[in-house]
């Protein structure tokens, strides 16, 4: 039986608009398309050089599309069981109901650690890649950040170091698209060059949100990231199985989902097994400590810290 090949998205033309909530940016001006590094697969010296230079790897088709789609379907079935899908629509369409509720399955290990999900993020192809990229046996956090974003749902600009930066700094995030995520559906966006911005790395990049009790979100304002801090934004139209891999000091966010179709993705972290772990995120049955474990603590507003760091 023949297998149909899904075509890749067309390159995003200059002049295309990216609607970031109420803000609008233009491709070719404030925002560009991510550079696809898929052609370098297998050449790990070249991949490491590109990571050092650009701060990220965008790899189309890293995960088998059918496996990524199956992981999304398991997630949507769980949302349906919780009453989150629109009635009279197919589960696979991923349409949110009127409640428009986003779902995070971080501690719901029945879903986030389901065989369909782990076959993607813990699959042999994933571990083989990171073992070759990092040069030895690797481990991944037991916490998997499996998310289904409803309309309006998004994250805010941050370095991962503020959340998951204990132990080794030679740790990488892999953000995997499990559904088709176009520019309207809430794609991930990165700030080009932010991995080399010493003013940020030596101030905000040094905080540990749970040790220092500091609000870890650097900014909720894409406009200031572009026009105040001088970054170009970069994103793409993602398909199931596409990934972005980046280190602890890549400023990133996600565009608010403008549709009523769930945007499903998962974040996972990988490091050398011999390197020091961040113990907050290990415990296979969902019993990891995680962030915000200082119950009842008051977190210093990031605005206060930014003023102290003379970043405002």
Structure explained in plain terms:
With 312 residues, this protein is α+β, with helices and mostly antiparallel strands. It has one domain: Jelly Rolls (Sandwich). Helices cover 24% and strands 18% of the residues. It has ten helices and 13 strands. It has helices at residues 44-54, 65-81, 109-112, 115-121, 124-134, 161-164, 198-201, 209-212, 222-227, 302-308, and strands spanning 17-20, 23-26, 31-33, 56-59, 103-104, 138-140, 145-149, 171-177, 188-191, 233-235, 243-246, 252-254, 263-272. Strands 4, 5, 6, 7, 8, 11 and 13 form a seven-stranded antiparallel sheet that branches. It has a four-stranded mixed sheet with strand order 3-10-9-12, with no helix packed on it. A hairpin with a 2-residue loop joins strand 1 (17-20) and strand 2. Helix 2 (65-81) runs antiparallel to helix 4. It is globular and about 55 Å long. It starts with 16 loop residues before the first strand and ends with a helix.
């Amino acid at each position: 039986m023949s297998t149909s090949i899904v075509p890749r998205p067309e390159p995003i033309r200059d002049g295309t608009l990216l609607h970031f909530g109420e803000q609008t940016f233009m491709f070719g001006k404030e925002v560009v398309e991510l550079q696809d590094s898929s052609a370098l697969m297998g050449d790990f010296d070249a991949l490491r050089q590109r990571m050092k230079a650009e701060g990220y790897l965008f790899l189309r088709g890293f995960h088998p599309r059918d496996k990524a789609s199956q992981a999304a379907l398991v997630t949507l079935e769980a949302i349906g069981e919780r009453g989150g899908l629109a009635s009279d629509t197919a589960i696979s369409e991923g349409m949110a109901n009127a409640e428009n509720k986003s779902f995070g399955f971080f501690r719901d290990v029945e879903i986030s650690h389901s065989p369909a999900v782990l076959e993607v993020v813990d699959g042999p192809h994933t571990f083989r890649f990171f073992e070759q990229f990092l040069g030895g046996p690797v481990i991944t956090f037991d916490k998997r950040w499996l998310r289904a974003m409803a309309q309006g749902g998004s994250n805010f600009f941050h370095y991962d170091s503020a959340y998951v930066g204990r132990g080794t700094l030679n740790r990488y995030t892999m953000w995997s698209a499990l559904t088709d995520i176009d520019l309207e559906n809430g794609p991930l966006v990165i700030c080009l060059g932010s991995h080399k911005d010493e003013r940020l790395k030596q101030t905000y990049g040094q905080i540990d949100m749970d040790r220092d009790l500091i609000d870890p979100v650097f900014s909720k304002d894409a406009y200031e990231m572009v026009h105040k801090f001088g970054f170009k934004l970069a994103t793409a139209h993602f398909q199931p199985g596409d990934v972005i891999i980046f280190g602890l000091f890549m400023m990133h966010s996600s565009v608010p989902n403008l549709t009523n179709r769930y945007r499903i993705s998962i974040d996972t972290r990988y490091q050398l097994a011999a390197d020091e772990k961040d113990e907050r995120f290990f415990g296979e049955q969902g019993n990891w400590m995680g962030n915000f474990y200082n119950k009842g603590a008051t977190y210093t507003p990031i605005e206060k810290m930014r003023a102290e760091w003379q970043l405002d």
